[in-house]
Amino acid sequence: MLEPTNNNELPPIPGKRYFTIGEVSELCAVKPHVLRYWEQEFPQLKPVKRRGNRRYYQRQDVVMIREIRSLLYEQGYTIGGARLQLSDNQSGKNETKCDSNTIQQLRMEMEEVLEILTV
């Protein structure tokens, strides 16, 4: 998933493996309590929790947060609308995979039929 283009004013994401909630807050221009709330509202957002329930976000989490931020703050979606938009995007990707696998399987079957008919 690429970083949304609407977030050009945000700082670049450093090449670290894990980010604390404070770092993510600064990288995404969102307060920590908002990030915790979004975790409850968006099932796609699941940071790793370690000792003492400390949250550690990975790069894909930061990109997801920036996408959520863009949907809510810049594109004007509600929480429910943003959740639906994200789930539609993900299911669309899965459908594309299934379709390409189905096409590949059909092609192989058609080639087998062609071999049978030419013999």
Spatial strand arrangement across the major sheet: 1-3-2
Number of strands: 3
Topology pattern, helix = H, strand = E: EHHEEHH
Which CATH class? Mainly Alpha
The fraction of residues assigned to DSSP E strands is 5-15%
Unreliable stretches covering 5 or more consecutive residues:
1-6
Q: What does this protein look like?
A:
The structure is a single chain. With 119 residues, this protein is mostly helical. The chain has one domain: Multidrug-efflux Transporter Regulator, Chain: A, Domain 2 (Orthogonal Bundle), CATH 1.10.1660. The protein is built from four helices and three strands, in the order βααββαα. The chain has helices at residues 21-28, 32-41, 59-74, 79-118; strands spanning 19-20, 48-50, 54-57. It has a three-stranded antiparallel beta sheet with strand order 1-3-2. The radius of gyration is 20 Å and the shape is elongated. Residues 1-6 have low confidence and may be disordered.
What attributes does this structure have?
elongated; about 60% helix; Multidrug-efflux Transporter Regulator, Chain: A, Domain 2; 4 helices; mainly alpha; about 120 residues; three-stranded antiparallel beta sheet
Topology:
Layout: E1 19-20, H1 21-28, H2 32-41, E2 48-50, E3 54-57, H3 59-74, H4 79-118
Antiparallel strand pairs: 1-3, 2-3
Question: Could you give a quick summary of the protein structure above?
Answer:
The protein has 119 residues and is mostly helical. It has helices at 21-28, 32-41, 59-74, 79-118, and strands at residues 19-20, 48-50, 54-57. It starts with 18 loop residues before the first strand and ends with a helix.
